[in-house]
Structure formats: structure tokens, C-alpha cells
Specification:
There is one protein chain. By secondary structure, the chain is α/β, with parallel strands linked by helices. It has helices at 4-24, 30-41, 55-91, 110-122, 133-141, 173-185, 202-207, 216-228, 264-267, 269-273, 308-315, 334-345, 370-376, 391-404, 420-426, 434-446, 477-481, 517-527, and strands spanning 102-106, 125-130, 146-148, 166-169, 192-195, 212-214, 247-252, 276-282, 285-288, 301-306, 319-320, 327-330, 350-354, 363-364, 383-386, 410-414, 430-433, 458-463, 485-491, 494-496, 510-516. A hairpin with a 2-residue loop joins strand 19 (485-491) and strand 20. Helix 1 (4-24) runs antiparallel to helix 3 and helix 8 packs across helix 12. It is elongated, with a radius of gyration of 34 Å.
Length: 536
């Protein structure tokens, strides 16, 4: 740089001096020529020299500023920027820090972003080894403990890995294999969890040293299929205990509905209809109702149990959720194929939408097109699954599908966990990300956290009365606070589902209790009760 610039200014200045002397007939000194050359190269403009008569001189004056631009674009990208990049790289870690009680993540990506946030929230120690410089800078700016390097070129960067608590490989399958072997070569004897693209790599990865191998894309597909199909994941466990006397229904609370924004106690659904609201789904989370002060959210899906005829009456105040008809899937990539595979194994009838024709595709078209949705029959579906590869497209598709099929459950794939809130705002009932399912699996192994939030699993259970003897099945504030509901009482071989104000639970009664697994545990602790044998 110190050579090119002075040489260019001196050469152009000399040529300008000679040109003005012999072509324009207005001699200039060398100093004036150098001044003109510096002004031309830097594009700062000219003083009194702003008009030239000779064509050769005019051409020279025209070309010179372009030479200056060329030099600027040559110097900065080729010389200046690499210099500062090199200086920046020196400031980054290139070797693992002390790794005692620390988890090493090899490469950053969407599959682990939610897990890392959980690590930060819980104060658990971790280090990311990243091979992409720009991404490593970004992670460093976000206050992550990051090491930058090229593992294939410098395997010694992982020399301290033998002190780590665990290793998670999150690169491509071949890079994961390389990392696994290098980690074992450095003497690491702890668990290595690999996130693979294809399940075919699981046996060889375990053979070369991985403790376990997970395929987040396939786990995501399985999670979406279980949300879409009641055959895979029934709405409630143990519903057969009461036969046809008590049913379970789901209702969407529309904006403007007489249920929206009101307290459960003010609605008096139990007293007037004999039904019990177990809980409500809101943005993919299920919460049990806990007493008359529970507020019914607009847009939520209520889970209600009671006599079938009474459930129909309640359905007139809200929008019943469809549970019959085919399951429609849009997006037939790796995740979509796994969804369809599981749905077919469960015996579900499916309709597949994709932009490109191919085996397994039933409707070719854009999911944003109402005509495509009409051909697929989304209005008559039992569930709609959007397994699209782009979150922006998923937001638009969610809004379009929700408008076309407001009563149908809508399950949407999210690629990056931070976009989940936008998908819910667009109208999704369940938005599931690869980072969410991968994070749940890894959190179970690394943070001793449960994989599936059991609060969302609903169960009917036969219980003995315990300390509830002498109480009314419906009028008990302590019972309400547990999140469970007594939906029926068996007395002398007769199952009762309606109770007047004088009814009291007796010691020989059998109670049919409904709630989430967590709320049933709270119920048993509170009333010192337990399940009874199922009657035949």
C-alpha cells in the first residue's frame, strides 16, 4: 500500500505535467501535477484546472479518476480488511478454556439455540467450538463463550476436552464423525451426543465413539404427527372407563364469543350444563383450570368433559374443533415425509400438498393459493400440518390456512425458535421447532429435565374418596386448586354424572377424576387418595 499509492500519484502527476506542457500549451510544474493527481485519485475535485482542449489530455483526465477508484477498491478489500480481520482473529479464543463441569458444543445451529438459552438461564457452563468466523463473531457479541478454529486443520484445539462434562456435535454427519474421533483420541471418556441429518449414520457414529445419535428433523416430524393424529396421541387417556356416558370435546374460543375474556365461575358451565372445563390450550401450552377465577382466553382451545348432549350445547357458544376427515400436509421435504410416514403407520388418511409433483404428492400448487387449499380439502380436514422450510412463508401460509379453515387444528413447523411467537400470532394452534424438540431431548440428558411436559397429557382415573368423604364433587375450592375435576361418581354399581346440592361423597364411592398427570399427582397428595382397580 505504501508503494502503490506514492508511485501512482507520482506517475500520474508527471504525465499530467507533460500533457499540459506539450498538448495544452499551458505548462505546469511537477508539484502542480502531483497536486492534480492526488485530487483526481481521491475524487476531491479540481482547482483552476477544470478545462482541457486536447482530446488526448481530456481522455487522460477522464480515465484518471477511475484509476483512483480501482486503487481504493483494491487496497481496502485486498489489504486493509484482511489486516483487521487477522487482528480480530487474534483476539478470539483458538483453544478450549478449562472445561471442568462444562459442555462442549461443536458448531452452532438452530437445533441447539433454545437449549443454549436454557443453559444460560440455569447458569450451566458451556463452550461453542465454531468454524465459521462471521458466526463466531456474532456468538461472541452475544456473550457466548466461543472458540474459533478449523478442527480438521488444528485438532489440538480440543486438547482440554477430556475435562468436559459432555460433548454435543451439531455439524454435518461427516464433520460430526471427525469431531467424535478427535474427542476420543484426546482421552475424553464422557458422553458424546450427535445430532445427525440421516438415521442411517446412527450405527457407524456409535461404533466410532458416540454415546447416542439423534435426528432432530425426524423427531420434529414425529412430534408434529402426534399433534395432528388422535390415533397417535389420544386427547385423553382412560376415556374408556366411562364408556359413552362422558365425552371429551375441544372448542375454540372465537373473538366476540360469549366465553371470551370471562371468568369460569361467571359462566356457570357446570351448574347449567353439567360439563367441566379441564383446561385450555394457548400457543401450544396446556394449563389446567384452577377455580372459578380462571380466565378464558380469546383464541384458546378449551378442553371440556361431560355428557355428549350437553357438550353439543356448549359447542354453540364456541367453535367445535374438527376431529374427522383427512389430515392435510403442506411441504413434502424431510420433515414432511416423516410426518406422512408416521400418519400412514397409524392408519390415517392424508392429503399432501407440494410445489413440485412427485411420488406421494396429491395436490401440486402453492399453499398460499386458496385454489390449492380448496383442491386439498382443508375445510374438511381433521388437522392441517405445515412443514414448510422457510419461516417467512410459514407465517403467510398460517394466516391463509387459518382464514380458510378456522375450526381445524393447525400444526406448523418452525425452523428457528425465535420465530415461534410470529407463527402463533398468525393463527397456529401448535408451532413446533427443531430447536424445541432437539433441546428437549438434550436437556433430558444434560440438564436432567423431562423430555415431554406432562402437564399437557390428560387422563381419566378411578380414585377412592380419601379425605373427600362428606364433600360435594363440584363445590370444593381445594379440589379446584389441584386442577382436577370429578366428572362422575360410581355408587352401588351405578355411575352418576349429575349432582344436586345435597349430594355428598361417601366412603364406598369410586370417583372418576380427570386432569393432567401433574394435577392428578397434586390431587392424590392433597386428599390422601389413590387409584382403584378398574371395574369389568
Amino acid at each position: 500500500m505504501l508503494t502503490i499509492l506514492p508511485t501512482a500519484v507520482l506517475t500520474l502527476g508527471t504525465l499530467y505535467m507533460l500533457g499540459m506542457t506539450h498538448l495544452e500549451g499551458t505548462p505546469r510544474t511537477l508539484l502542480e501535477g502531483i497536486q492534480w493527481a492526488s485530487e483526481s485519485i481521491t475524487n476531491t475535485g479540481y482547482g483552476h484546472d477544470n478545462h482541457w482542449e486536447h482530446p488526448v489530455m481530456a481522455s487522460f483526465v477522464i480515465v484518471t479518476p477511475f484509476i483512483g477508484q480501482f486503487l481504493i477498491f483494491l487496497i481496502f478489500p485486498v489489504l486493509v480488511l484482511p489486516y483487521f480481520e487477522e487482528k480480530f482473529e487474534v483476539r478470539m479464543q483458538h483453544e478450549l478454556p478449562p472445561m471442568a463441569d462444562t459442555v462442549l458444543f461443536y458448531r452452532y445451529g438452530p437445533a441447539i439455540e433454545s437449549l443454549l438459552e436454557e443453559f444460560k438461564r440455569s447458569g450451566s457452563r458451556f463452550v461453542i467450538f465454531e468454524e465459521d468466523l462471521e458466526l463466531a463473531r456474532n456468538l461472541r457479541d452475544r456473550k457466548y463463550n466461543v472458540v474459533f478454529g478449523k478442527l480438521a486443520d488444528d485438532p489440538g484445539a480440543l486438547a482440554r476436552v477430556k475435562e468436559a462434562r459432555a460433548v454435543v456435535t451439531n455439524a454435518g454427519d461427516h464433520a460430526n464423525a471427525t469431531c467424535t474421533m478427535i474427542v476420543r483420541e484426546h482421552g475424553f471418556s464422557g458422553p458424546i451426543y450427535a445430532l445427525a441429518d440421516e438415521p442411517i449414520y446412527r450405527p457407524p457414529m456409535i461404533q466410532i465413539g458416540a454415546t447416542d445419535v439423534f435426528t432432530p428433523a425426524h423427531v420434529l416430524g414425529a412430534a408434529m404427527a402426534s399433534r395432528a393424529s388422535t390415533r397417535i396421541s389420544p386427547p385423553a387417556e382412560g376415556m374408556h372407563l366411562l364408556g359413552t356416558q362422558v365425552g371429551l370435546a375441544e372448542f375454540r374460543v372465537r373473538n366476540g364469543s360469549e366465553l371470551a375474556g370471562r371468568r369460569l365461575g361467571d359462566l356457570r358451565l357446570r351448574e347449567e350444563y353439567g360439563v367441566s372445563v379441564i383446561g385450555q390450550w394457548r400457543e401450544g401450552s396446556f394449563t389446567t383450570t384452577k377455580g372459578p377465577e380462571t380466565l378464558i382466553d380469546s383464541g384458546a382451545i378449551l378442553v371440556v368433559v361431560g355428557p355428549p348432549l350437553q357438550l353439543e350445547k356448549v359447542g354453540r357458544m364456541a367453535m367445535p374443533i374438527r376431529r374427522d376427515g383427512p389430515i392435510v400436509l403442506a411441504g413434502f421435504g424431510a420433515v414432511g415425509r416423516k410426518v406422512i410416514e408416521m400418519l400412514h403407520d397409524a392408519g390415517e388418511n392424508c392429503v399432501v400438498i407440494d410445489l413440485l409433483p412427485g411420488p406421494g404428492v396429491d395436490v401440486v400448487g402453492n399453499v398460499l393459493d386458496n385454489a390449492t387449499l380448496a383442491r386439498a380439502g382443508v375445510a374438511n380436514a381433521s388437522a392441517i400440518v405445515l412443514a414448510l422450510a422457510d419461516d417467512s412463508e410459514a407465517v403467510f401460509a398460517t394466516a391463509v390456512v387459518r382464514d380458510q379453515a378456522p375450526e381445524v387444528p393447525l400444526i406448523v413447523r418452525v425452523n428457528r425458535t425465535p420465530n415461534t411467537a410470529r407463527i402463533y400470532k398468525a393463527g397456529a394452534d401448535f408451532a413446533i421447532s427443531q430447536g424445541q424438540v432437539a433441546g428437549q431431548i438434550l436437556a433430558y440428558h444434560l440438564l436432567d429435565e423431562q423430555i415431554i411436559p406432562v402437564e399437557s397429557r390428560i387422563k381419566f382415573s378411578r380414585q377412592n374418596p380419601g379425605t373427600l368423604v362428606g364433600s360435594h364433587p363440584w363445590h370444593n375450592e381445594t379440589l379446584e386448586q389441584t386442577g382436577t375435576k370429578i366428572v362422575a361418581v360410581e355408587r352401588s354399581q351405578t355411575v352418576l354424572i349429575e349432582f344436586d346440592d345435597s349430594f355428598r361423597i361417601q366412603a364406598n364411592d369410586v370417583l372418576y377424576v380427570c386432569g393432567s398427570l401433574n394435577s392428578l399427582e397434586r390431587y392424590q397428595r392433597q386428599f390422601q387418595t389413590g387409584p382403584t382397580a378398574t371395574r369389568h
